[in-house]
Design brief:
alpha/beta; 275 residues; 8-stranded mixed beta sheet; globular; 11 helices
């Protein structure tokens, strides 16, 4: 079980998937999951990517197999998340790396790229917002006063089930996928999710877009409610940005169309950094 230590000493878990030619030093691609999820949620895109890249899938602190041994009131910050990612990159010997992040993981990728431009070769954003809009936060609250109240009252599994049908997946999604997804998110500590939601509710990386030097690929749903209103800001703020719309109106494009997302990411990385 690959682990390393964060700057504050807690254990950070990550999965490493490597089916590259053993005589070559393949580049690293960090795949970062988003809110309340874990490295396990990348299961169906990894086979497409790990033949050509050493694919590193971190569990954000407090989630998956990473430690919850820190103060939730102070330990969940963008600074800590960025520092954790660098510690994991160092642990796998990656002086520089490609990065792909979904949703909140994409927000963290923007922050990482802006603050450490020498480390990030390319940045791929999978339905990543710049901030969590009031509409999204209201949706996440359901019939409760706040997003945090909904999480605490419903629990992580029931909340995930409700969000699955609200913004994440189309009505004809395989029920088995929805059940698995909810059960897997149900393993996440709801107090960690509440602390994450407080951070997510206030973070906004729009002002630092101009500091991102890496080429950026944006894979977004066509007309997705969570992100579509922020695409103009991405175009205006990023110096080197390619936007691709997938013919899907729901948020979880990397789960719904893993082969398509992987194909775009592989082509983009090769275009900018070679094979």
């Amino acid at each position: 079980m690959p682990e390393t230590q964060a700057g504050d000493g807690i254990a950070l878990h990550y999965d490493l998937h490597d089916y590259t030619d053993p005589w070559k030093k393949a580049p690293v691609l960090i795949l970062q999951h988003g809110f309340g999820r874990s490295a396990r949620f990348w299961y169906n895109i990894i086979p497409y990517l790990s033949r050509f890249y050493r694919v590193v899938c971190p569990d954000l602190r407090g989630l998956g197999q990473s430690s919850r041994g820190f103060d939730l009131a102070t330990g969940i910050t963008v600074d800590n998340y960025v520092s954790d990612l660098l510690h994991i990159a160092d642990a796998v010997g990656a002086d520089n790396f490609h990065y792909a992040g979904e949703s909140l993981g994409g927000i963290l990728g923007i922050a990482l790229s802006a603050r450490h431009p020498d480390r990030v070769r390319t940045l791929s954003l999978l339905a990543a917002p710049l901030s969590i809009s009031p509409w999204t936060q209201k949706t996440f609250a359901f019939d409760y006063p706040t997003w945090q109240d909904a999480l605490r009252s419903m629990g992580s599994k029931a909340w995930a089930s409700a969000v699955n049908t609200a913004t994440r997946f189309p009505p004809d999604t395989d029920p088995g996928l929805l059940d698995w997804y909810s059960a897997e998110m149900g393993k996440s500590d709801v107090e960690v999710m509440i602390a994450m939601s407080r951070l997510a509710a206030k973070v906004d990386v729009t002002p630092i877009l101009t500091q991102v030097r890496a080429p950026v690929l944006g894979l977004y749903p066509q007309g997705g409610r969570v992100t579509s209103e922020q695409e103009a800001a991405l175009k205006a703020g990023l110096a080197d940005f390619r936007l691709v719309h997938l013919p899907i109106a729901y948020h979880m494009i990397w789960t719904l169309a893993p082969a398509t997302c992987a194909d775009h990411i592989l082509h983009f990385m090769a275009l900018h950094a070679g094979v």
